[in-house]
Design a protein that fits this description.
about 270 residues; alpha+beta; Immunoglobulin-like; 2 domains; eight-stranded antiparallel β-sheet; 6 helices; 8 strands; binds zinc ion
C-alpha cells in the first residue's frame, strides 16, 4: 500500500475503528512517515475534542475543509485517470476500492459521521444521567434536612425542653450552634459555619458542670459548607445547669478536651 492509502485510514485509526490487520500495517507505515504521524495527531485531537463536548459538535472549519478537499481531489484524480492511456494498476484492497475511490471516501466520511453521532448521543445520555443524579442527591439532602428539622422541633416542643445557643469562639469565631434537649436528656446539636476538620480530627461536644472536669459527648464532622448535626444524650447531672462546649479532637473523641474551644454556651 502507498502513503496515500494509509493517509485515508488515519481518521478511522484516530477513532479506534480500524481492524487489527489494517491497524498493524498502518502503524508500520507510521513508524517511517512523519507526515502521516502529524496528520494522525490532528485527527486524534479532533476525536478528543468531540469526546469532550457534550453538545452536538460540528466539525471544525479545518476538518471540514480537509474532508471537502479529499472528496474534490479524488474527483479530479478520477477524471485524470479516465484520460490516461495506460491506467495505473488498481489497488487490490477490496474495502477501499470496491465502491470506487469516491464511494470509499464517502463511506468513510459517513462512517465517521455515524461514529461521531453515536458518541454525541452517548455523551448527552451521560450528561442527562449526571444531571439526574445530582438532582436526586440534592433532593435527598433536602429531605434529610427536613427530617432533622422535624426532629429538632419535636424535641423542642416536648414539655420541659430547653435550648442552649452556642457561640463561636477562638478558631470557631463565625460559627454558631443550638443544642436542644428534652427533660430525659435526649439532645440534638445543630451547628453552622464550622471550619472544615483536618484529616484525623472531629469535633466533640462537652458538658461542663461547675468546676468539674468536662464530660465527653459525641463527635461529629461538618459537611462541606460547615453544617453539622449530632444527636446525643445530656448526662443527668448536666440537665439543670451546664455549659456546652465544642472542641476539635482526634477522630473518635477524647476523654478530656485537648484543643481550643470552638463553640460554647453560657449559663
Ligand atoms: Zn504516510
Amino acid at each position: 500500500m502507498a502513503h496515500d492509502d494509509y493517509k485515508e485510514m488515519l481518521p478511522a485509526l484516530a477513532l479506534s475503528a480500524l481492524d487489527a490487520e489494517d491497524a498493524l500495517a498502518l502503524h508500520e507505515h507510521l513508524s517511517e512517515c512523519n507526515e502521516c504521524r502529524r496528520e494522525l495527531a490532528d485527527w486524534e485531537n479532533t476525536a478528543a475534542s468531540l469526546a469532550l463536548s457534550a453538545s452536538p459538535a460540528e466539525p471544525s472549519p479545518h476538518v471540514r475543509t480537509r474532508i471537502m478537499n479529499a472528496v474534490r481531489s479524488d474527483k479530479g484524480a478520477r477524471t485524470q485517470e479516465a484520460s490516461r492511456v495506460v491506467p495505473f494498476p488498481k489497488n487490490p484492497r477490496a474495502v477501499w476500492t470496491s465502491f470506487g475511490q469516491v464511494g470509499a471516501i464517502a463511506a468513510a466520511v459517513l462512517f465517521l459521521v455515524l461514529i461521531v453521532w453515536i458518541f454525541v448521543l452517548w455523551q448527552q445520555n451521560r450528561a442527562l444521567r449526571r444531571d439526574m443524579d445530582s438532582l436526586m442527591s440534592e433532593f435527598r439532602s433536602v429531605q434529610e434536612d427536613a427530617r432533622r428539622s422535624q426532629e429538632f422541633l419535636a424535641i423542642l416542643s416536648s414539655p420541659g425542653a430547653k435550648v442552649a445557643p452556642l457561640r463561636g469562639n477562638g478558631p470557631g469565631a463565625g460559627a454558631n450552634a443550638q443544642l436542644v434537649y428534652d427533660s430525659s436528656g435526649y439532645a440534638m446539636l445543630r451547628a453552622n459555619d464550622l471550619p472544615p476538620t483536618p484529616a484525623g480530627k472531629e469535633y466533640q461536644l462537652w458538658f461542663i458542670v461547675g468546676n468539674n472536669p468536662p464530660i465527653p459527648g459525641g463527635t461529629f464532622t461538618p459537611d462541606d459548607i460547615g453544617r453539622a448535626e449530632l444527636t446525643d444524650r445530656v448526662p443527668a447531672r448536666a440537665l439543670n445547669s451546664a455549659v456546652f462546649a465544642v472542641t476539635l479532637e482526634p477522630t473518635g473523641g477524647s476523654r478530656a478536651p485537648t484543643s481550643a474551644v470552638y463553640l460554647r454556651s453560657t449559663l
